[in-house]
Amino acid sequence: MHSPRAVIVAMLIAAATFPVTALSADATQPAIFSKPAQLFTLVNVTFDSVTALAIAPAKSNAFENIVLGEPLQGGLTSTTVHVPAGGCLRDVRATFRDGHSQVFPAVDVCRYHSMRLTSRGA
């Protein structure tokens, strides 16, 4: 039989290590939890202007248009936009001046706060 003191010490050790274990588990998981609206920077280094931007929860195809104000010129330009509140994993769709669109799937907007568009993709 364990002494009451040994039981209390064991409980304190378990309680002290639980938060560390819980944090460690969360750090290894993909960020899928809901977050409030946040800022996200889009850098355009392609040769074409981005005329529209839309963001959707990953794999949902429920894109919400993001106001750019004016086209994001090609070259080396950037803009900062508000990402609507929601989950961390988002699909980002950029529409270019020539009309073609490109979807960048499962962008983790909680971990990364910017994305660089290049001629070969983000």
Automatic annotation (TrEMBL):
Residues 1-22 form the signal peptide. Keywords: Signal. The keyword Signal applies. It comes from the Bacteria. This is Plastocyanin.
